Amino acid sequence: MIQKNTPKALIKPEEAAALSKLFGTLDDVYRAKDIFDAYLSLCTGEEDHTYMMMCALAAVYSAGRIQGIREERNK
């Protein structure tokens, strides 16, 4: 998600990787793959594969962030 004000990162990559071992479920894996694949399906003809993969990962990250925001708002 590209915007004028990028939110400050409140988690480091190492922390996210360590926590994923504690809280990740098989459903999370499948959901992330679905988001990843959906993004890639929009990138037909993209020549820069590294950029395409990084954007697909960003889509998964952004979806998780949005999920967390929506869960907090529902509380």
Keywords:
75 residues; mainly alpha; 3 helices; 71% helix; globular
Describe the structure.
This protein is an all-alpha fold. It is 71% helix and 0% strand. The protein has 3 helices and no strands. The longest helix is centred in the C-terminal third of the chain and has 26 residues, at 49-74. It is globular, with a radius of gyration of 14 Å. The chain starts with 12 loop residues before the first helix and ends with a helix. The relative contact order is 0.09.
In short:
This protein has 75 residues and is mainly alpha-helical. It is 71% helix and 0% strand. Helix 2 crosses helix 3.
Gap between N and C termini: 24 Å
Radius of gyration (Å) = 14 Å
Assembly of the depicted chains: single chain
Number of helices: 3
Tally the beta strands: 0
Which H/E pattern describes the elements?
HHH
Instruction: Describe the main β-sheet briefly.
Output: none
Beta percentage is: under 5%
Low-confidence stretches: none
What shape does the CA trace take?
A: globular
Overall pLDDT, averaged? 87
Structural class: mainly alpha
Q: Could you estimate the helical fraction of the residues in percent? A: over 70%
